[in-house]
Amino acid sequence: MATQQYYGHTVEGTAVFVGEEQWRATARVTQGGAALVQSCEIGIFRTRERAMAEGLAWGKRWIDCNQCPGAGVGQADGHAVLSDAEGA
To answer: Mean of the pLDDT values across residues 54-83?
Structure first.
């Protein structure tokens, strides 16, 4: 797992080995220890490093679109929001 701090959030990019030269990428975004979003499968990549990097990129896009005022409209694809505070 690769972890980066981004605009006060922790972004985790995870790679899970699924077969020869196949790594499944997922991501999670947390803030203050609370999970805000967990991605569905982002894709399958040939290397562990690429899968983790794609997970980090997905998490940063989600933050840009959903948490930074005026930074974007809409949501990153393939996510499951873990908070009940929608619209708050």
So the answer is: 71
